[in-house]
Structure of Transcriptional regulator (LysR family):
Amino acid sequence: MELRHLVTFKTIVDKGGFKKAADELGYAQSSITAHIHDLESELEIPLFNRMGKSISLTQAGETFLPYAMEIIDLYSESKDRLRNTEEPSGIVIIGASETLMIHWLPSILGEFMEKYPKVEVVLKSLRFEDVHSQLKSGEIDIAFLVDLENWTQKDVWAKKIRQEELVHILPGKNERRPFSPRMLTTEYKCSWRPIMEEYMNTTTDINMKAIELPSVEAIKKSVICNLGQSIVPRFVVEKELKDGELIEYPNSKVKQELAIFQAIHKDKWVSKSMSVFIDYLDIAEQL
C-alpha cells in the first residue's frame, strides 16, 4: 500500500471526482484511475460506486476513509517531528586514532556532550589501514585521523580540520647525560612512521637503532626519561615542550606537514546528530 494511493483516494473524496483530483494533484486522470485500481486490488474490495459520471463511496470506502486519513496525518506528523526536533538526539559513532583520542578529542567531546546531552557519542578505535571498510560497513560514522596533508581515500569525503607538523624530541631535563641514540617508534603502522624510517636510514649516527613501543604516550614518557628520542606530531608534546620536560631538536628532514582529517563515506546519510557534531567541531576549531 503506497502513501500516494491513499492521498489520491482522500483527494477524490475531498474534490468529488477523479478528474478534479487529477487536476489537484497534477496527475493524468489515467494515473488517478490506476492508483485506485491498485488500492482496491490490494484491499480486495471496491471503494467507490461508479455510476456514469457520478461516484460515491461504498460502505467499505466509508469504513476505510478515516484509516487512510490517519495514516496520511501520521506520515505528515512524523516528517514534521523529524525536521523540527528541538534538541538533537541519537547516536554518533566516532572512530579515532589513539593519538587523537588522548590529545585532541577529549576536550571537544566534553563540551559537545554538555551542550547536546541527548546525543550519545560512541568512541571506537580506528584501524589506520582499514579506514575505508570501517566507514563503508557503518562500523563508524565519522573517522578522525592524523596523516600527511595529501591524504585521500577512495569513496571517502575527507576534510582537513587543521594543519599539524612533526617535531623531533629529546629529553629536556637530562642532567647533562648524553642523549640516547635509540629512536623510539610506534609498533603499529602510522602515517609518519615512513618519515622516521627514512631519517634513520639517512642519518650519520651509526649507533641509532629503532625500538618499538606500544603507544605514543609510552614514547613520550620514555623520551622524558632519556630512554631514547622520537619524532611525533607537535600537538602531542606541546605541554611537555612548554614545561621543559622535552626539547625540540632542529631537524629539517622531518619538517613534513601533517593534518588532522575528518572522513565520512561518500554514500553515508548524515543524520541530525552527526550534522550538529560536524558543525560544532567547525566552530570549536575556529575559536
Remarks:
- The mean pLDDT is 88.
- The chain has three domains: 3-83, 94-155+259-286, 164-258.
- The chain has eleven helices and eleven strands.
- Residues 164-258 form a domain with the D-Maltodextrin-Binding Protein; domain 2 fold (CATH 3.40.190.10).
